[in-house]
Design goal:
alpha/beta; Aspartate Aminotransferase, domain 2; 14 helices; UDP-4-amino-4, 6-dideoxy-N-acetyl-beta-L-altrosamine transaminase; 3-stranded antiparallel beta sheet; single chain; binds pyridoxal-5'-phosphate
């Protein structure tokens, strides 16, 4: 009797004894939150991606919202977001009261391009959006240089949603490459540290920037908009005693901010995971390269996502595009067939402009590139703990499904 093969989810975390020990040590420490490990993790993360500053928060959604708050987005403002993304990219702007203009995407890659961004701007000629949030879908970067050039001309800031792309490199013009998160061609980059992403802190997020003012604003917003720094107090009559010393209990709320603080426990896990990030990235690249080779001959029924020229991406998701009509099987049926063979799959994503909340707000829009991508997308298993045999099983099952 053969033993059943383990179920392969489309993605999952990679936790070892070192991670467990790091978390246990943090739990025995003096600070469970707002302690020194948060700053240590931020410094290490900023150094890894090559940015001057990093602000850690308790989710990728918080990381995006902090970026929008740092730019001062508010009611009356507009931002451009590609429709193929997770909800949080658009919602971050809505939390600030800003309105979202959905851009279409390239049907073959699911990514926003300079052309789809230009088309979105032309569709709403009365608006002057203040920011664009390109998404490095699956870990493949958008053409950052082209989008930044257009954003510059249109007076928009660029917030990269890099939640899928930690550890990758993108072309940055003049034959150079920049690390994702270095903000070489953007104001801000946002990451998620959810377990399914490239590294994890349980829940968590990071926003990186090279702009000290944006960095300080994000620190303020993360913690209720309050400061304990006497040098920043503005209400002198209640902050200082007659001798000019700051009152020892005093703090000042200068903006309206949520509590997006991350714990020292999470950051201890983050520091431990960060040390293994290069090996996670390396393993993801090897598995993706294997899929690239082993699935290439299934075209045109199953096609692969084209990468941005000159990039060296670190994929979070491995997506294949399947012509379900041609293989004579619906996506739901295909997912059930694969599941019965121990292979987990998922669909990333229903275009956000089709979500009932956004249809209510903006009406029914037509974004054919987003619809075409969504119709065919299927995410197959990709995570560092997968073995070659696991990946080969996925390839065999896809060959059987498609041929
Ligand atoms: C995961 C993800 C987010 C949100 O991150 P959370 O940590 O789940 O809040 C935002 N954008 C994209 C593209 C994501 O994949």
């Amino acid at each position: 009797m053969s033993t059943a093969s383990p179920f392969l989810p489309y993605g999952k975390q990679c936790i070892d004894d070192e991670d467990v020990a790091a978390v246990a040590a943090a739990l025995r420490g003096d600070y469970l939150t707002t302690g020194p490990t948060v700053g240590q993790f931020e410094r290490a993360f900023a150094d890894y991606v090559g940015a001057r500053f990093a602000v850690a928060s308790n989710s990728g959604t918080a990381a995006l919202h902090l970026a929008c708050m740092a730019l001062g987005l508010g009611p009356g403002d507009h931002v451009v977001v590609p429709s193929v993304t997770f909800l949080a990219t658009a919602n971050a702007a809505r939390f600030c009261g800003a309105e979202v203009i959905f851009a279409d995407v390239d049907p073959h890659s699911g990514r926003m391009t300079a052309a789809t961004l230009e088309e979105a701007l032309a569709r709403q000629p009365g608006f002057r959006p203040r920011a664009v949030l390109p998404v490095h879908l699956n870990g493949h970067c958008v053409d950052v240089a082209a989008i930044q050039a257009l954003a510059d001309r249109s007076g928009m800031a660029v917030i990269e949603d890099a939640c899928h792309a930690l550890g990758g490199l993108h072309a940055a013009g003049n034959d150079t490459r920049a690390s994702v998160g270095a903000c070489a061609l953007s104001q801000l980059s946002c990451f998620s540290l959810h377990p399914v992403k490239t590294m994890t802190t349980g829940e968590g997020g990071v926003t990186t920037t090279n702009d000290e003012q944006l960095y300080r604003r994000m620190q303020l917003f993360r913690n209720h908009g309050m400061t304990r720094d006497a040098g920043e107090f503005t209400a002198a009559e209640q902050a200082f005693d007659t001798a000019g010393a700051a009152l020892p209990w005093y703090y000042e709320m200068q903006e309206l901010g949520p509590n997006y603080r991350i714990t020292d426990i999470a950051c201890a896990l983050g520091l431990s995971q960060l040390r293994k990030l290069p090996s996670f990235v390396d393993r993801r690249r090897k598995l993706a390269a294997y899929y690239d080779r082993a699935l290439a001959d299934l075209a045109p029924r199953l096609t692969l996502i084209p990468r941005q020229p000159d990039d060296d991406p670190a994929l979070h998701l491995y997506v294949v595009l399947v012509d379900f009509a041609a293989i004579g099987c619906s996506r739901s049926e295909a997912m059930a067939i694969l599941k019965a063979r121990g292979i987990g799959t998922q669909v990333h994503y229903l275009p956000v402009h089709r979500q009932p909340y956004y249809v209510r707000r903006y009406g029914t829009e037509s974004l054919p590139g987003a619809d075409a991508y969504y119709e065919r997308a299927l995410s197959i298993p990709l995570y560092p703990d997968m073995t070659e045999a696991d990946a080969a099983r996925v390839v065999t099952a896809l060959h059987d499904l498609v041929s």
